[in-house]
Each structure stands twice: as C-alpha cells, then as structure tokens.
Amino acid sequence: EVQLVESGGGMVQSGGSLRLSCAASGFTFSNYDMSWVRQAPGKGPEWVSEITSGGANRYYSGAVKGRFTISRDNAKNTLYLQMNSLKPEDTALYYCNRGRFALGQNAYRGQGTQVTVFL
Fold it and tell me: Cβ contacts of residue 84 below 8 Å, gap of 6+?
C-alpha cells in the first residue's frame, strides 16, 4: 500500500522558516519523481515544486522560487521542503504527491501538513 506521511508544519511568523518532510512507503521511492502541492482554504490545489527521481532536477513555481528548496533522501525514503522567508500567502495545507503533479501524475498523495504564516 502506498503511504505518504507529511510532517513539519506549524505556525510561524512572516519571514520565518519551516522544513516539511514526507515519509514514503509501499513503493520504490527512488524510482519516482515527487512533488509538493499546497491548497489554501477555498482554493484549488497549487503546484509548488517537484524533483526528479534521482534528485538531479528540481522545479519551482514562480510564487516560491528563491525561497523554497525541495530535496530528497532516497536512502531514507523521504522528501523534504525547506521553506524560508515565509509569507502569509504561503498559508495552506501542504502535501506530497507521488509523481509530477504538473503533468497530471496525482494518483497518490498524503494527508498533508498545515502551514500557517502570520504577520
């Protein structure tokens, strides 16, 4: 059974940092590209970032480029998202997604971890 479990969310003041983790199990993690996606209240899912299976290539949305860094540790079956210079508009439920969400590969996702940024 594919499982994706996010952690690391919380409440942080604007300008602060958080590091999200996504523990994967039930599949060969190192074979899959992975994505982070977020959803703010009342809005649809928004692609944030993705990384190729070996970690060589990383992509970011314009809203987070330069502030967020995606990474992975295939030995630990874990995906990460380092978020710096957080803004109130980053407030959302963040979840990891197996595959490249931007290409419609969204069959498996975790339950998400809430990030709230206040002024």
Answer: 17, 67, 68, 69
Q: How far is CA 1 from CA 4, 25, 31, 51, in A?
A: 10, 8, 16, 22
Question: Cα(100)–Cα(36) distance, rounded to whole angstroms?
Answer: 9
* Residue whose entry in the numeric block shows the structure tokens 């952690």: 7
- Compute the radius of gyration of the chain from its Cα atoms: 13
Contact 113, 20 (CB under 8 A): yes
Q: What is the pLDDT of residues 58-108, one digit of tens each?
A: 999 999 999 999 999 999 999 999 999 999 999 999 999 999 998 899 889
Cα(114)–Cα(64) distance, rounded to whole angstroms? 17
The residue written with tokens 């590209």 in the block is: 33
Which letter, b or e, does each residue of 1-22 get, where b requires 16 or more Cβ atoms within 10 Å of its Cβ?
eeebebebbeebeeeeebebbb
